[in-house]
Design brief:
By secondary structure, the chain is mainly α. It has 17 helices and two strands. It has a two-stranded antiparallel ribbon. InterPro entries: Dipep/tripep_permease (IPR005279), MFS_dom (IPR020846), MFS_trans_sf (IPR036259), MFS_Transporters (IPR050171), POT_fam (IPR000109), PTR2_symporter_CS (IPR018456).
Length: about 500
């Protein structure tokens, strides 16, 4: 007989077997850590694989096209979170979507490792994007089911969970980068698949201990409507295949298409929420307050996510990676940001706790994050136009430290405020809107990387850094009106 939800929190409070947390947290911690290991490990070598020549083990795709593909893929991951959340809420429940998504991710990495050329890239990236979106959308929800509403261990549990994310993000590029440099790209992709297999295996043994509420379907789709939605999904796939076959969707315009789809989805979400009769006047004001935050977030991510496009190209061609006569692999640069996050996330959490009600408001934090991100881009200017390997590694460390500070001011705050400003009837959709801002920014980062390859670096870093600073200052000036619209939320 299934346990009641009242019984489950009681048992959760009695379970302190994983660093004082429920034992099941270890299973979710593990699958998320290995998923991030595989995700960032693969992404650390993906762009290089696309534009390196065949003699170097790559596909020889032009850099601008390759950067656009990476940006479109990154945007698709966050677009997929919406699908993952819908399937969890209407059909399978969060836990099952998480499990099946992990299997899809593993299959994607296997495709990248075993299928040569463009077919392997296309198959692998589609599977990884869909799977990562499903897992990302539901892992946090499953962690939340381990705790009673007022369990004092909840924040600490999420801190441990996020530590797993960043441990995986740190180790993935280091190990796949080593394999790529010594044995080749496909061995790096294979390691990502092995990492995901390890995470999936340990999760398979632990998932039976998760509370029944993790498998609950909050708003079940009537069985009679399953064929309709199945047909819609199949039709979408067929349309995409036909468009690709007839050359309407190509590698060159893919990123533009993803940007367009994301904008349409975001506008549709805002229209649906704001026009709903279920939304009160106060809730509608709060949704309007989220619009400038959405814009700032998209601008921030369009610069921040260039770690996987422009910064990768820059590190390959311009960064001095020589360490005592040994050249550091390019993907290792991707591991710098997770180190800073691990070191600084606790500092920021303690700072907000210490300041309490005196801490800056959410609009001011968003403004500061966007402005500091712009400053990070301006820090490239002293090295603009330099020759091969002319930028010191210490300079890149400093720039990525600035990136991390900006991220900690905006990313966790954005997730938090999206739940606070959400109308009661649209809580999940508001979180989806925040992820749509990430999707839009990530896709735009790929498009901007194409521009990077065609203009002087002083123009590129100066203009983008300046725009971000202007947006940040504008949001800071508008902070008071935005706060009034937030109607009591800070």
């Amino acid at each position: 007989m299934p346990m009641s939800q009242a019984t489950q929190p009681s048992l959760a409070r009695e379970d302190h077997s994983f660093f004082g947390q429920p034992r099941s947290l270890a299973s979710i911690f593990g699958v998320e850590m290995w998923e991030r290991f595989s995700f960032y490990g693969m992404q650390g070598i993906l762009l290089l694989y696309l534009y390196y020549s065949a003699a170097e083990g790559g596909l020889g795709i032009p850099q601008s096209t390759a950067a656009g593909i990476v940006g479109a893929y990154g945007g698709s991951v966050y677009l997929s979170t919406i699908v993952g959340a819908w399937v969890a809420d209407r059909i399978l429940g969060s836990e099952r979507v998480l499990f099946y998504s992990a299997i899809v991710i593993m299959c994607g990495h296997i495709a990248l490792a075993l299928i040569p050329g463009v077919p392997g890239v296309a198959t692998g990236l589609i599977l990884v994007a869909v799977g990562s979106g499903g897992l990302k959308a539901n892992a946090t929800s499953v962690v939340g089911t381990l705790y009673a509403e007022k369990d004092p261990r909840r924040d600490a549990g999420f801190s441990i969970f996020y530590l797993g994310i960043n441990l995986g993000a740190f180790l993935g590029p280091i190990l796949t980068g080593l394999l790529q440099q010594s044995l080749g790209f496909h061995f790096g992709f294979a390691l990502a698949a092995i990492g995901m297999a390890i995470g999936l295996t340990q999760y398979s043994f632990g998932r039976k201990r998760l509370p029944d509420v993790a498998r609950r379907v909050p708003d079940p789709l009537p069985r009679s409507r399953w064929p309709l939605f199945g047909a819609i999904g199949a039709l979408v796939v067929v349309v995409i295949v036909v468009l690709v076959a007839f050359g309407v969707i190509t590698a060159d315009n893919l990123v533009i298409i993803v940007i367009g789809v994301t904008i349409v989805a975001a506008v549709a979400y805002f229209v649906v929420i704001l026009s709903s009769s279920q939304v009160t006047t106060v809730e509608r004001r709060r949704v309007f307050a989220f619009i400038p935050l959405f814009i700032a977030s998209a601008a921030f991510w369009s610069l921040y996510q260039q770690q996987f496009t422009v910064v990768t190209i820059y590190s390959d061609e311009r960064l001095d990676r020589n360490l005592l006569g040994w050249e550091m692999p390019v993907p290792w640069v991707q591991s710098i940001n997770p180190i800073f996050i691990i070191l600084l996330s606790g500092v920021f959490a303690a700072l907000w706790t210490r300041w309490g009600a005196k801490q800056p408001s959410t609009p001011l934090k968003f403004a500061a994050g966007t402005t500091i991100m712009g400053i990070g881009f301006l820090l490239f200017l002293p090295f603009a136009g330099g020759g091969a390997h002319s930028t010191p590694l210490l300079a890149m460390l400093g720039i990525l430290l600035v990136f991390t500070i900006a991220e900690l001011l905006l990313s966790p705050v954005g997730l938090s405020v999206s739940t606070k400003l959400a109308p009661e009837a649209f809580t999940t959709q508001m979180v989806a809107l925040f992820f749509l801002s990430v999707a839009l920014g990530t896709a735009v980062s790929g498009r901007l990387a194409e521009w990077y390859l065609t203009v002087p670096e002083t123009l590129y870093f100066g203009v983008l850094g300046g725009i971000a600073i202007v947006l940040g200052v504008a949001l800071a000036i508008a902070a008071r009106p935005v706060l009034r619209l937030m109607s009591g939320v800070r």
